[in-house]
Amino acid sequence: MATVRDVRTKAGEEAITMLTAYDAPTAGIVDDAGVDIILVGDSVGNVVLGHETTVPVSVDGMAHHVGAVARATEEALVVADMPFLSFGVDEAQSLENAGRMLKEEGAQAVKLESGPHTVSLTEKMVQLGIPVMAHLGLTPQHVNQYGGYPRQGTDQEAAERMLELALEHEEAGAFSLVLEHVPANLAAEITDALDIPTIGIGAGPDCDGQVLVFDDAVGISEWTPSFSEQFGNVRAEMESAVDDYVSAVESGSFPAEEHSHEESDLEELY
Ligand code: KIV
Ligand code: NA
């Protein structure tokens, strides 16, 4: 089982790989491929549960998915994303929610969409033994404030504020930092300034690692952001399998002899 220390060690040597997963079979595939970190992202809300955004995702809902992923993962580090308002409102409640992901669901760390309100909370979690992955740049739980998903850190003041927050979260004990949808040169500067590894999404090539949403990376999603890449066409493969199933049942070619159990020697009932 990988640990947060393994992640920090690898960062100096090779790029860190991270993908999301939301269920056991997917986690098994990602884990077998040797991906370093599996993030059970709150992107489960829009990617899997049919919501428009991540805002409606609940702690119970996350726990359900985190458990499934953790049970199927042998090697990768499993990180549970903490959903909107499950942290940062009340400290005791935040610690209980995050602790549950480790204690009951088998995650080894949590991720918090970070800001000024998560510095002391990160420190407290780390003190208690809950490793924290920080997340700056575009934080999708703020969609109602942004009015969309705009790139972040594009002016000098915002860039300086982001660097400052990154350093504060490192100081608070975060073991890594996700940088989402920020200019590549800003991500490079933050990566240089920090000792902990940065993991980028839409943040250029100079982070210590990269993360994508699984469904985007393998080509299940109907729409993917411009900074993503489809490394496969799994949706087309699924569509073709479902089409073939429908045709086979409708034409009577499925089930065939080989799919049928032997008939029992019942008397005719009717
Ligand atoms: O929820 C998620 O999938 C994420 C990653 C894109 C970083 O937060
Ligand atoms: Na997320």
From TrEMBL:
It is found in: Cytoplasm. 3-methyl-2-oxobutanoate binds at residues 42-43, 81, 111. Binds 1 Mg(2+) ion per subunit. Pathway: Cofactor biosynthesis; coenzyme A biosynthesis; Cofactor biosynthesis; (R)-pantothenate biosynthesis; (R)-pantoate from 3-methyl-2-oxobutanoate: step 1/2. The active site is at 180 (proton acceptor). Catalyzes the reversible reaction in which hydroxymethyl group from 5,10-methylenetetrahydrofolate is transferred onto alpha-ketoisovalerate to form ketopantoate. This is 3-methyl-2-oxobutanoate hydroxymethyltransferase. It comes from Natronorubrum sediminis. The gene is panB.
